[in-house]
Design brief:
It is a single chain. By secondary structure, this protein is of the alpha/beta class. The protein is built from 15 helices and 26 strands. The strands form six sheets. Strands 2-1-11-10-12-13-14-15-16 form a nine-stranded mixed β-sheet, with helices on both faces. Strands 4-3-5-6-7 form a five-stranded parallel β-sheet. It has a four-stranded antiparallel β-sheet with strand order 17-18-20-21. A hairpin with a 3-residue loop joins strand 24 and strand 25. Helix 2 packs across helix 3. The termini are far apart. The relative contact order is 0.09.
């Protein structure tokens, strides 16, 4: 399988159909394919060889998408870079990946210039927008000055990209994803979302993350249209959803709440919106109720996965995202195994567990990564026995629906009992006034750890910690209920995929404890 086959197909079956639209500029699939072939030739003119890595450090845009197709067209591998990282964090990725060329934009150029890799550095910088200085090559100038090249023919097991993990629980690692991996995942995503040549998908999550990248390739396979906002902004997203008659989008639950809180959502015409893919966590009942009321034509699809599986392991169809009826009991599930994939739950000995028992989630299929870049021992550990060991805890019901119980590293050990953070979070989320919640374990000299909830109230709401603890004790065992509650004014820290960075919350709690001890 080849990533560029989707581009070639779209140009063949929908040549004059709208391919991209961004800030009033629309291009057809015929135009995008031609530009990608020229851009690919321009990249190869820098002396690159098949398999060399090209970094992409840029906000969402139509040119960003063209770059993501030009790179495999040239037989090269992409290194999508997180513009939220510090220069030092990016330096480590640049050095680890050995990237040769960087494609960036005006917004990210100062960050790129602050990265000082040693001993290697990229040789050329291509500037997507703005005025190129003496050290950069303009994107449009590179396209205009390059004759189109033939597709280099990369595919199958060839490296398509190095996607660096968010490092929510450990150091960032380069995940090697092949053409087969990414095309398989695109097929799974397209199947679950129902993309076709009438679809318009909004890129609002960062395009450097494979959670959005799944639709980059899936929508192209379907010859649909890509719309963009540079980065998530609730007002900009709603305006674009309405103006471009967007049919499909992807948001994490936190973003969905922000959209629902905008007053204009009640007046804008969003009737074209048919599917929203959400992930990172189950959607809270109150948020789902509001969403179904304000967006009655839209269904909500829950996806679970990770970068190591390109990124989809399971999908929960929209018919289960309801609050009433026999299918509502599955709404907190992550769904069943994605197209072409397998999912099972195993105990410490690797044996399958019966329905209802919590164990580690294992994933197998052609979407599973080739391995970690330059990390053979960690690759062998993650892929032992032919299954991707996710590090996530979960259980399957009798129908094969997966329910998550948290990360292995997030399991709280208190007084000899194991507490699954997700179970507690689901209860806390039901308390009136709670907008966001994360549950972590805090060190305790007697009990090993105690259960601690970090809560962000909804706008204008007040959450009383003691009342919340009593609410939880009435619904779950006393040892599972939070012993302490922190009311937080600012949003919870999130990774690029919208997952809560619990290591940051633990570090903050440790710093407060250390500060109190010093005082």
């Amino acid at each position: 399988m080849r990533l560029t086959q989707g581009l070639a197909r779209a140009a063949a079956v929908n040549p004059r159909g709208r391919a991209t639209v961004f800030r009033g500029v629309a291009r057809t699939w015929e135009e995008v394919a031609a530009r990608a072939a020229r851009l690919a030739a321009g990249l190869r003119s820098f002396g690159l060889s098949p398999g060399d890595r090209v970094g992409v450090l840029a906000l969402n845009s139509d040119r960003h998408l063209e770059t993501l197709f030009a790179i495999p067209f040239a037989g090269l591998a992409a290194v999508p870079l997180n513009w939220r990282l510090t220069p030092e964090e990016l330096r480590l990725i640049v050095e680890d990946s050995g990237l040769r060329v960087l494609v960036t934009d005006a917004a990210s150029l100062p960050l790129a210039r602050a990265v000082t890799p040693r001993p290697r550095a990229w040789t050329h910088t291509v500037l997507i927008d703005g005025e190129a200085g003496p050290d950069e090559i303009g994107f449009e100038a590179l396209i205009a000055g390059s004759a189109p090249m033939a597709d280099a023919g990369a595919g199958g097991a060839d490296l398509a990209g190095l996607y660096y993990t968010a490092g929510t629980t450990s150091a960032s690692k380069g995940v090697m994803l092949t053409h087969d991996n990414l095309v398989t995942n695109a097929l799974s995503t397209g199947h679950a979302m129902g993309y076709d040549d009438r679809s318009t998908y909004l890129h609002s999550g960062p395009m450097f993350h494979q959670a959005d990248g799944a639709s980059t390739f899936a929508v192209t396979l379907a010859a649909g249209c890509h719309a963009f906002v540079p980065r998530f902004d609730a007002e900009d997203c709603l305006a674009t959803l309405a103006a471009e008659r967007v049919t499909h989008a992807q948001f994490v639950p936190t973003m969905i709440r922000m959209l629902l809180d905008r007053p204009e959502i009640a007046t804008l015409d969003l009737s074209a919106l048919r599917r929203i893919l959400y992930g990172a966590s189950p959607i809270e009942d109150e948020t789902l109720r509001r969403a179904l009321t304000l967006l009655p034509n839209c269904g909500f699809v829950h996806g679970y996965g990770m970068t190591e599986v390109s990124s989809t392991a399971t999908m929960l169809p929209a018919r289960y995202a309801v609050l009433e009826g026999p299918e509502a009991e599955k709404r907190r599930s992550c769904g069943q195994a994605a197209l072409l994939g397998e999912v099972r739950v195993a105990g410490p000995d690797g044996a399958d567990l019966p329905p209802g028992e919590v164990g580690e989630v294992l994933i197998r299929g052609p979407q599973v990564m080739a391995g970690y870049w330059n990390r053979p021992e960690e690759t062998a550990a993650a892929l032992r026995g032919g299954w991707m060991h996710s590090g996530d805890l979960g259980w399957l019901d009798a129908d094969g629906f997966l329910f998550l119980a948290g990360r292995l590293k997030d399991m709280i050990k208190t007084g000899g009992e194991n507490v699954f953070a997700v179970e507690v979070e689901n209860v806390v989320a039901e308390f009136d006034g709670v907008a966001e919640v994360a549950v972590i374990g805090l060190p305790h000299p007697v009990w090993t750890e105690t259960v601690h909830a970090v809560v962000v109230p909804r706008a204008g709401a007040r959450v009383d910690p003691e009342a919340l603890i009593a609410f939880c004790r009435a619904r779950i065992a006393a040892y599972k209920a939070p012993r302490s509650v922190e009311i937080r004014a600012e949003p919870l820290p999130l990774s690029a995929a919208g997952k809560i960075l619990k290591r940051v919350l633990r570090d903050e709690a440790a710093a407060r404890t250390a500060g109190a001890a010093e005082g």
